[in-house]
Design a protein that fits this description.
Layout lengths: L1 H5 L15 H11 L15 H12 L9 H12 L5 H19 L5 H25 L10 H26 L2
Helix pairs in contact: 2-3, 2-4, 3-5, 3-6, 3-7, 4-5, 6-7
Protein name: Rod shape-determining protein MreD
Keywords: Membrane, Transmembrane, Transmembrane helix
Length: 172
């Protein structure tokens, strides 16, 4: 313990130079995963940008202010081919809802965060299904279930990657 405290590699080591922009950059990078050449008849892959966004927001509420949800949602709309404004509205509402939840709850543990993420991911999939119905792609909701289940099951991995990125970002 004393040896670790006296280790010169830890003393004076602070956040990386662009620490304030790393959370936004990781969300944009996750949104860019939608540009991978994956060919599928049904969209089985989740919205990775939204997964990482929720992971960052549940891990820390301080990396960005609430208004950053709109530009990050716009970037997600541009790369995932959603109509412009879909992710902007959804991500802004998510940020406001999580701010409200933070003020109302005394503590959260791993399971509560997973349930919160599952609820927000289900709302995201439901809104995508409603939007598809509005534009004429009248499909049963069961077509959304694979991506919803995959997103809920992948969230712990996304949260773990976000926490490791945060440790690197803060120099810990």
């Amino acid at each position: 313990m004393v040896r670790a405290a006296l280790d010169s590699r830890q003393i004076g080591r602070g956040p990386s130079a662009f620490a304030a922009y790393v959370p936004a950059a990781t969300v944009v990078a996750a949104s860019l995963l939608a540009a991978l050449p994956i060919v599928s008849n049904s969209g089985w892959y989740p919205d990775f940008g939204y997964l990482v966004f929720i992971g960052w927001r549940l891990l820390r509420s301080d990396p960005w202010p609430a208004w950053w949800a709109a530009p990050l949602g716009l970037v997600n709309d541009l790369f995932t081919s959603y109509p412009i404004g879909f992710s902007v509205a959804l991500w802004s509402a998510t940020m406001l809802a999580l701010d409200l939840i933070d003020r109302r709850t005394m503590w959260r543990d791993y399971w509560i965060e997973w349930v919160l993420a599952a609820v927000f991911l289900a709302i995201d999939e439901w809104m995508q299904w409603q939007l598809a119905a509005v534009v004429g792609a009248d499909l049963p909701f069961t077509t959304q279930l694979p991506s919803l289940v995959i997103a809920i099951l992948v969230f712990p991995l996304a949260a773990w990657i976000v926490s490791r990125t945060d440790r690197w970002r803060l120099g810990r």
